[in-house]
Amino acid sequence: MKIRLDRDVLAEAVAWTARSLPTRPSVPILAGLLVKASGGQVVMSSFDYETSAQIGVPAQVTDDGVALVSGKLLADIARSLPNKPVDITADTSRMELVCGSARFTLQTLPVDDYPALPTMPEATGTVKSEDFSRAVAQVVVAAGRDELLPVFTGVRMEIEGDTLSLLATDRYRMALKEITWTPSGSGGDGAALVPARVLGETAKSMTSGEVVTLSLASGGTGDGLIGFEGAGAAGTREITTRLLDGEFPKVRHLMNVQATVTVRANTAEVIAAVKRVALVAERNTSLRMLIGDQTITLEAATGDQAQAVEALEAVVTDETGQGLAMTAAGFNPHYLADALTALDAPYVHFSFTAPGKPCLLTALSELDGEQQTDYRHVIMLMRLPA
User: Fold this and answer.
1) Which runs of consecutive H residues, i.e. helices, occur in the chain?
2) pLDDT digit string (tens) for 144-177?
3) CATH number of the domain bearing residue 299
4) 194 in a structural domain
């Protein structure tokens, strides 16, 4: 193999592919990054038996070939090279990189021992890359991180006509986002449970092109496979990952909150106040929101050692017409800050029912405007001491 690449193209392609390399590979060969050159293009790949990543970039290919080298080491080298063209040659035993006066020689790994990458499933539809990235970011924040409960570490993707829904929960909070997408054909409705970590990283890395192509191998979970493809100036990127097994809990009904009290406030002001007051919140204790007459007050404390109180202007509405049915709510401060940040809107609408019951957060573009229900975030309130 003999190729020439622009330094920035090489560094970005290697860095993107190496992100999917396993931290502790089950077998040493999986720490390798596969480099294949042919027909004026270089394709770099990584695979850990669960998730595969592949990127194709243009290059001057003098001799076709394939080589397997340590992905982490290659990424470190590519990032440190001077801003000059990079010449790469490889044979069965070593790879050599020359960039200006810098020269690196790497031992290659046996290509024949590397597992075959899964085939990208047939395209199911396309979605605007910016819409997809924003939607995934809003939802993955609510996904669980406990690997002992794998079903909660996923994002349920539901396809129904031209609507793509993303839903995640860790049992203490839930996020649902609905976006419009373009299905490839009729009869493509289905669902998939995608690992949240992979989905989040994929969505962020697919923003260079205008659209992302989704490819779903089966309509359910289990041994199914899902693929994502994006094409842009940085090359064509493909990712596949195994779907999670298990049945996702039925939590959509918790989004239908019948409010007895609603609160509307400036999102940025509430976020800033939550972060300040939470500085004194004792571990595993709640941040208390007191609901008053057109005002909310945030309180937290660490026993008698430290206390914090901050009041904010708000629009408080009694939906029952019988006086405020709820005057205090207990939030996990981290969950509340995450939800408010994910809203990505000037104003927030809180829908309360009763202490200890789910609280629904939706976005508002204007303080007196309509709720934007395409994104809904539910937080289970903490019980307050009597």
Assistant:
1) 7-18, 71-80, 129-140, 196-205, 267-277, 333-343
2) 999 889 999 999 999 998 999 999 999 999 999 9
3) 3.10.150.10
4) yes
- Side chain identity at 153, as an amino acid letter? T
Residue 302 tokens read as 């660490």
- Per the DSSP assignment, residues forming a β-bridge with 174 are 169, 378
Q: Strands 86-90 and 41-47: what pairing? A: unpaired
Supply the pTM of this predicted model. Answer: 0.90
Residue with tokens 């309360």: 352
- One-letter amino acid at 273 equals A
Does residue 32 surpass a pLDDT of 90?
A: yes
Q: Which pLDDT value is given to residue 186? A: 58
CB 358 within 8 A of CB 371: no
Residue 385 resides in a domain: no
Is 250 part of any domain? no
Phi–psi pair at 158, nearest 5 degrees: -120, 130
Taking the C-alpha atoms of residue 350 and residue 110, their distance in angstroms, rounded to an integer, is 58
In this structure, the answer to whether residues 265 and 376 fall within a common structural domain is yes
238 and 266 belong to one structural domain: no
Indicate whether 112 pLDDT > 90: yes
Residue 213 has pLDDT above 80, yes or no: yes
